[in-house]
Amino acid sequence: MKTSIATVSISGDLREKLGAIAAAGFDGVEIFENDFLAFDGTPAEVGRMVRDHGLEITLFQPFRDFEGLPEPQRSRAFERAERKFDVMQELGTDLMLICSNVSPLALGGIDRAAADLRQLGENAGRRGIRVGYEALAWGRHVSDHRDAWEVVRRADHPNIGLILDSFHTLARGIDVETIRTIPGDRIFIVQLADAPRIDMDLLYLSRHFRNMPGEGDLPITDFMRAVAATGYDGPLSLEIFNDQFRGGSPRSIAVDGRRSLVNLMDQVRRAEPALAIEVAEMPDRSAVSGVEFVEFAANEHEAQELATLLSAMGFSLAARHKHRDVTVWRQGTHRGINIVINTGHDGFAHSSYVVHGTNAYALGLKVVDAAETVARARALGAETFAEPRGSGELVIPAIRGVGGGVIYFIDDALATVWDVEFDPATPAGLSDAGLSVIDHIAQTMNYEEMLTWLLFYTSIFKTRKSRMFDVVDPEGLVRSQVVEGEHGGLRITLNGAESRKTLAGHFIAESFGSSIQHIAFACADIFATAAKLKHLGFQALEISPNYYDDVEARLGLDPQLTDRLRAESILYDRDEAGEYFQLYSQTYGEGFFFEIVERRNGYKGYGAANAAFRIAAQRRSIRPKGMPRS
Question: Under a CB-based contact definition with an 8 Å cutoff, are residues 58 and 92 in contact?
Fold first, then answer.
């Protein structure tokens, strides 16, 4: 499988784009005409620059408004094509894209369009050039790949072929099964783009909101399964028009693009095992059965502050590392939750503390096979992580997360790490507030990075993504989306901050990009847990009394339940399946906090309706003394 990407998909000048594309591991590049025209070198110089990066030019595009024109526009279109052929020969590429005509002057008729393409094929053939015809979803007369194929079929010329673009097919809801009947050798190139499902003009959606396969809502895998069934074996190329990508890091977007293609074709190979699909072998996506541990980096003083907060939540010091300045905190004698505090003065944890202050810099995820999980992540372009290990210490496979943190993988063989590397502590008294497992973890990032995080998790792990929704902060919107695995083993809420004035944006800015902003613990009885926490000195986040009056009226709660919720500062939500209870800690540091939840009868959500009230309460709790109320 050869991978390609259009220069329009990423930011920067042409030199920067080519450098990022080559570094990400692509085989080829589509030269978008505007990028070429803005470059201050000759076509031959551009061609050499592409080849010097180890790339080939898979396509020169786009050539607009060609077929079906009346005279004199028709003759002028053929003259324009000859000029483009001149440029292509200097560039060193043999394939040009013609998109279906959108001009109001264009005349309809399949035969008329086919005749024009046949003549163009004759002209192109004399120069060793091929022309691909693509149906734009908003084309004046041809807006469907089935019609575009009929034009190509009737043109009946070896230098005229079809170009398929997933966006133009899927955004219009065209049946992808119709692709299977097209001969693979008549498809000259396949362009791929995903997009969110938004009720919007298709041209505007295409120009501003396309994204990488797997980042949107279109059935890209179904599209590619149909393409693979034709026997097509040419390049797969990304053509992404996205306002965020145009302002993002060229390297990061290029890496996302390559990851999306490799992941897509791995899914197609698994769905169509009978087809000979050329894609690198890799392990399947890993199922995550739970979070084995969360590790904090801190100095000695701030570690004590964190320990005090953990103690008030029913955690006790359970173990100390035999050789390192690392401790483990648990609920009594249970190992369902392992909170690790690392106060070492060397290694990555210390570096993370120096940059971010006290932060949750590492996760340990429970998987079936740790080595296979890392192998898949590596095949998808993730960076592996390793530090020197001492005598008797286990080597735990790990990768770097998108935000710079570390993700460790723990399988059954590595679950012995707590007994091998740690000595039991002897706390004065074991406490237990009834917290059982980590329910979910919330990671905060700049909104522009959310798609990168989403693709990272969904391509490596067996997860599904929820629809994005808005969380209202008094200082702006925060976009939130959930990634979750089967049976709740892994739940991560991704929160994209658009303004640093929001609580999420403040956390990113003041912690210099630290990503894990809160950790939610599950319990079986929220009211029993709240009583134990109060006894331990836990200070819950105080919720406005107005909230309880509203939730009682809105959801028809029994007044006695409302009184219990109000007394313990517990938030409430429910869905068609069950109920959800939330209790929050005060904020720690620059906006980190803990949450305690109870899910009843299969509740699936995360209390999104309560987020605005939680944020308002947090803002009140951290308001400097003397600061007026808004």
Answer: no
**Residues near 47 by Cβ (< 8 Å), separated by ≥ 6?**
57, 90, 91, 92, 93
CA distances from 502 to 50, 127, 355, 627 (A): 43, 59, 21, 17
- Selection from 70, 95, 66 nearest residue 79 by Cα: 66
Reference 570, options 585, 583, 561, 557; nearest CA is: 583
- Closest of 98, 99, 101, 14 to residue 57, by C-alpha: 14
Q: Does the predicted TM-score (pTM) go above 0.85?
A: yes
CA 208 to chain centre: 18
Sheet hosting strand 316-321, strand order edge to edge: 398-400, 406-410, 359-367, 288-297, 339-342, 326-330, 316-321, 422-424
The Cα 396–Cα 233 span in angstroms is 39
**Which tens digits make up the pLDDT trace of 382-439?**
999 999 998 889 999 999 999 889 999 999 999 999 999 999 997 656 779 999 999 9
Q: At what angle do helices 611-622 and 503-510 cross, to 10 degrees?
A: 50
Contact (CB, 8 A) for 303 and 344: no
pLDDT digits (tens, 9 = 90+) for 110-124: 999 999 999 999 999
Domains of the chain: 3-271 (3.20.20.150), 288-424 (3.10.180.10), 435-622 (3.10.180.10)
Q: Which position has the token pair 């390049």? A: 235
Helix (H, G, I), strand (E, B) or coil at 257: helix
Structure tokens at 237: 């190329």
